[in-house]
Write a structure and sequence with these properties.
Blueprint lengths: L2 E2 L6 E7 L2 H17 L5 H11 L5 E7 L2 H13 L6 E3 L9 E5 L11 H6 L1 H18 L3 H7 L9 H21 L6 E4 L3 H9 L4 H18 L4 E6 L3 H9 L5 E8 L2 E7 H13 L4 E4 L14 H11 L11 E4 L4 E2 L6 H10 L2 E2 H8 L5 E4 L7 H8 L7 E3 L10 H13 L9 E2 L42 E9 L10 E6 L3 H9 L6 E3 L7 E5 L8 H16 L10 E7 L12 H13 L7 E7 L8 H12 L6 E5 L2 E10 L12 E5 L4 H12 L4 E6 L8 H8 L5 E6 L5 H8 L7 E6 L11 H21 L2 E12 L1 H4 L5 H19 L3 E7 L8 H9 L2 E2 L3 H10 L5 E6 L1 H10 L3 H11 L26 H12 L21 H15 L5 H5 L4 H10 L3
Parallel strand pairs: 5-6, 5-14, 6-11, 8-13, 14-15, 18-19, 18-20, 20-21, 21-22, 22-23, 25-26, 25-28, 26-27, 28-29, 29-30, 30-32
Antiparallel strand pairs: 1-16, 2-3, 3-4, 7-9, 7-10, 8-9, 11-12, 17-24, 17-32, 23-24, 31-32
Helix pairs in contact: 1-3, 5-7, 5-9, 6-7, 7-8, 7-9, 8-9, 9-12, 12-13, 17-20, 18-19, 18-24, 18-26, 19-26, 23-24, 24-26, 29-30, 31-32, 31-34
Length: 1004
């Protein structure tokens, strides 16, 4: 049977409620139950509470060892008095972002890790890993001996002490992570930056070992009894004044905070400075550093340090990571473009600006945990954060006097009770398959707040008015990934092309901890590799789509353990504006995205290799591919220049950025279809001289009335021509019509909705007119010198659609074709349209509207599509909130993130069309009470009958507010009060009272 344990072995008994009084009532009810059921142990009680009650916002954690202590602690919670075994939240728990702070040298001592090595398997595992790397490279285990306090370890050199210090901090960080506390960022102080980078993942474990050891070996050269360092409780300016009045040599080496600096220099000078500061009643203390770190003396080590790092480090720069890493070397984030060779020298030479590092990290972190066996930076952290209005928390790890893990456990409890999303499951012991214990009989129910928690229903029509949707224009952009978190090493099954890349992947994968499996093993990841030499013509592209369809049609069912399926293409994306997309691989990627909808439990992801992949060294390319396959939560990736790029969609202005096309001679292919007629109508209104509508059947009787209406719009000459554009002879006959007057504008609006299995016949049907017929038209029909070509693609090529794989692929070929035509100097653009009105395709329309797309006003849509023809675009109207939900469901949220940020801003701040807006809100006379306004708007959002009776301390999500309502509430508050309330704040558990407080604080 599984149970729950804190790191010191005590049992965690969690009491929680939506109010502080509720926590006391919970304690009373549970204590009464225990008294009446003397055989119930702390273990059974903890298990019952964790299994049946969510952790609510007000909390008290009892750390119990036996029943008597548990009863006493519960009594203390009832009476609201302190108890050694109880940790309480000092208010409602909130979403916390944790930063791990790694101090520099100064508090080390032999045996500092012995306690944790003996008591924590997680600490021991990490320390052993790093110690093994050190011994493998340097041939001895002296850092480990120093860390564990082996005999004679006190006499070890600086080259042993500093690696031991780093191993120690990494082990302590592993204890925190094993206990469910993961950092959003790491912050390093001097030597502590190495541990910060290792935990963040910006350096590998081996790199960290190499740098810390070589750094220490070089520092040993200048370490002697002639130098010393000290911390002084004064500001930088006053310290400089002290140095100016002294004839000896010393420099300010560290700025920890506004009122605490460190100096390094000649020992006699440092001693004098300590004496002067003490006489002035300033804090001053020598620290355990025997060399003048972070001073000009270190410049003599530069050449040797940079040379050895160049020789030892395989990667010249830092790796991207999802965990932010902040260093005191620059007082800023450690980013991938920084050179490791230069950075680590500066880390040894430059003045430490810990104050700036904390200021930079404070934007990403609100809980700072010092990763050390004894706090040395607590006061410094609090001083740096004191001027901020945010509610920061500063926590330590343990104490030097600790004899067990009790201090660590108490600090962990402090973090857990204040973090709304702390994963209490991290405290569970035993195997996941252990049989759960039976529920406790007669267990008291949760103590509920007697006040009203759920707003009652009122008719939607009372507050919401329909708003006509307007289209917006999106463009694809590719952004270099500066941060990413690696996945666990994958068990890969490679399928598809068996070329040199596949062979290299199988050979190189073990170097990264990954494993390439044969068909008889159970993978967690499947990667389908397309050949690295894509076709260059349209016929070849169609053949590649057919090959891909056949491959996917005969694909076996995914094994139960598969969590990701990758498609690896070559040159399918235009990452740089000058690139020409490979049409066949582009089509396969779009079809692949549609297939994801049949396997919603599996992440379908796409990696595009550079166009010259076939000419690159297979092993080097394989290394980059393996690295990319371990990137987390990016559905669309591309490798260019050895670096990963991620696809993003961004909203752009629809104002015309290109000259309007010439409307003298217009050819609309697919002109007798619904979309073609929409273009014809608009061009008639715009004053076109002549329009030819090409359709397979030509003019039909039911088409006559529509033509009469179009011709009545103006003086435009409209002709309908029957032509099967898949027939080269028919296209040649069509071309003869334009010998004297070449076409000024070609609109390719042919549509082929193919609902079929993935087979050769279906591929032929979907690409016949859409792709091959168009290719014939463009090669045969005379075009004016500056003719414009508009290719009508579909948003399905980006979003995907169930049973629409071939339709998506055919449209993506048009997108790729547009890049080739522009490269040839033609005025050409492909537009992925959203939803046109589809009167004869009700099934298709219902599927699209279900995804959140709305019919576009044709005039606005066409104007947006022709506005900028320098790159392809997406033009659509939508219920953006619904579409966002769909994208999040199918794993495309990162691709659309920039667009969501733009489209969900209040209209007064946005420079893009809003479609559709929430309810039209008239700004009322502002009441005297901000709380009254917020309450009224909440009532309107939730369609309630008055919120006066609602408990303002209850999270709004507990009242039933969802993400769409949270967005609506934010918009209403912006409209009525001109104040910002982030939607994430509401969804992360903010109450009505907290929203009111936030709005009040943001009056400026």
């Amino acid at each position: 049977m599984s149970s729950h344990r804190l790191p010191d072995g005590t049992v965690p008994v969690l009491l929680s409620s939506d109010t502080a009084a509720g926590v006391r009532a919970e304690a009373a009810a549970i204590r009464t139950y225990l008294v009446e059921h003397p055989r119930v142990t702390p273990d059974r009680l903890a298990d019952m509470l964790f299994r049946t009650r969510p952790a609510r916002r007000y909390r008290a954690l009892v750390m119990a060892t036996e029943r008597t202590q548990l009863l006493d602690a519960l009594h203390a919670v009832m009476d609201d008095v302190p108890h050694d075994a109880v940790v309480r939240s000092d208010g409602p728990a909130s979403v916390r972002r944790v930063g791990f702070v790694f101090p520099g040298q100064g508090s080390q001592h032999p045996g500092m890790g012995r306690l944790y090595y003996d008591l924590s398997p997680d600490y021991r595992s990490v320390v052993d890993e790093y110690a093994a790397l050190h011994e493998d490279r340097f041939g001895h285990d002296r850092p480990l001996r120093y860390l564990l306090g082996a005999p004679d370890s006190a006499a070890e050199t600086l080259a042993d002490v500093q690696p031991a210090r780093m191993f120690h901090m990494l082990g302590l960080a592993a204890m925190w992570r094993a206990a469910g506390v993961s950092p959003a960022a790491t912050i390093g102080h001097s030597q502590g930056e190495l541990a910060a980078c290792a935990v963040a993942g910006t350096v590998t474990p081996r790199q960290a070992v190499l740098v810390v050891t070589h750094r220490a070996v070089l520092a040993e050269r200048v370490a002697s009894g002639d130098y010393a360092m000290a911390v002084i409780g004064t500001d930088r300016e006053s310290c400089e004044a002290m140095l100016a009045r002294h004839s000896g040599w010393a420099e300010i080496a560290v700025v920890n905070s506004p009122q605490l600096v460190a100096v390094a220099g000649e020992r006699a000078t440092i001693a004098d400075l300590i004496a002067v500061a003490t006489e002035q009643d300033r804090f001053a203390k020598e620290i355990q550093v025997a060399y003048p770190a972070h001073t000009s003396v270190m410049t003599e080590l530069r050449t040797d340090f940079e040379r050895v790092l160049t020789d030892e480090l395989a990667d010249a720069t830092f790796a991207p990571s999802e965990i932010g890493c902040y260093g005191a070397t620059l007082g800023a984030a450690v980013t991938p473009e920084l050179s490791q060779r230069e950075y680590w020298y500066r880390n040894l030479r430059n003045r430490v600006r810990f104050d700036r590092a904390i200021a930079a990290a404070a934007d990403a972190v609100d809980t700072f945990i010092e990763i050390a066996e004894h706090p040395t930076l607590q006061v410094v952290l609090q001083e740096n954060l004191a001027s901020s209005a945010h509610a920061f928390r500063v926590v330590g790890t343990s104490l030097r006097t600790a004899t067990g893990l009790g201090e660590f456990t108490r600090n962990l409890a402090e973090v857990a009770v204040h973090d709304l999303h702390y994963p209490w499951a991290a405290l569970r012991t035993g195997a996941p398959t252990d049989t759960p214990a039976l529920p406790l009989c007669d267990f008291p129910p949760t103590v509920l707040n007697p006040k009203k928690l759920w707003a009652s229903y009122r008719s939607m029509q009372d507050d919401i008015a329909e708003v006509e949707a307007s289209p917006v224009r999106l463009v694809e952009e590719w952004t270099a990934l500066s941060r990413r978190s690696p996945a666990e090493p994958r068990r890969l099954l490679l399928t598809g092309s068996a070329d040199e890349l596949a062979i290299a992947l199988a050979e190189r994968a073990p170097r990264y901890g990954a494993e390439v499996l044969d068909g008889n093993s159970d993978p967690d990841t499947v990667a389908l590799l397309l050949p690295t030499t894509p076709a260059a013509d349209m016929a070849g592209a169609v053949a590649e789509l057919a090959d891909f369809a056949a491959t996917m049609d005969r694909r076996p069912a995914f094994a139960s353990g598969v969590t990701e399926c990758w498609l690896v293409t070559t040159g399918a994306e235009t990452v740089a504006p000058t690139e020409v997309a490979a049409s066949g691989h582009s089509a396969a990627a779009a079809a692949f995205r549609s297939l994801a909808l049949d396997h919603l439990g599996i992440a379908f992801r796409h990696l595009d290799l550079p166009p010259d992949a076939a000419a690159l060294d297979p092993k080097s390319l394989a290394d980059r591919v393996i690295d990319a396959l371990h990137v987390v939560d990016e559905p669309e990736l591309a490798l260019r220049g050895g670096k990963p790029y991620a696809k993003r969609l961004r909203v752009v202005e629809s104002d015309s950025a290109a000259p309007a096309p010439n409307l003298d001679e217009i050819l609309i292919v697919g002109g007798t279809g619904h979309v073609g007629l929409r273009f014809c109508e608009q061009f008639c209104r715009d004053g076109a001289q002549r329009i030819t509508l090409v359709g397979r059947r030509g003019e039909s009787p039911e088409f006559t009335e529509r033509l009469r209406t179009l011709r009545a719009l103006g003086s435009t000459e409209i002709e309908v021509v029957a032509c099967d554009i898949t027939d080269a002879a028919a296209v040649a006959e069509l071309a003869e019509r334009y010998c004297a007057h070449p076409v000024d504008l070609v609109v390719h609006a042919a549509v082929s909705y193919v609902w079929s299995e993935l087979d050769a016949a279906a591929v032929a049907a979907s690409t016949g007119a859409k792709v091959l017929g168009l290719d014939t038209v463009l090669r045969t029909v005379p075009l004016a010198e500056h003719a414009t070509v508009l290719l009508c693609s579909s948003f399905v090529a980006t979003l995907g659609g169930r049973d629409q794989a071939l339709y998506a692929g055919a449209n993506r070929i048009l997108d790729a074709l547009a890049t080739r035509l522009r490269a040839e100097g033609r005025d050409c653009v492909a537009v992925q349209w959203g939803l046109w009105e589809l009167p004869h395709h009700a099934e298709m329309e219902s599927r699209i509207t279900g995804a959140g797309l709305l019919p576009m006003p044709p005039a606005q849509a066409i104007a947006a599509g022709l506005a900028d023809r320098s790159r392809n675009s997406v033009v659509l109207a939508a219920d953006w909130r619904r579409l966002r939900e769909v994208c999040e469901t199918i794993g495309l949220a990162p691709v659309f993130a920039p667009a969501w940020d733009q489209l969900t801003r209040p209209a007064s701040e946005s420079e893009v069309p809003q479609a559709p807006a929430p309810a039209t809100i008239a700004a009322p006379q502002l009441p005297a009470s901000i709380a009254e306004v917020v309450r009224r708007e909440l009532d309107r959002v939730m369609l309630g009958d008055g919120v006066e009776a609602i408990d303002g301390s209850i999270p709004l999500v507990a009242l039933g507010i969802d993400s769409l309502q949270a967005l609506d509430l934010r918009t209403r508050i912006k409209a009525t009060l001109n104040r910002e309330v982030p939607v994430t704040t509401i969804l992360r558990g903010a109450s009505l009272d907290e929203v009111v407080q936030l709005v009040s604080e943001n009056q400026g």
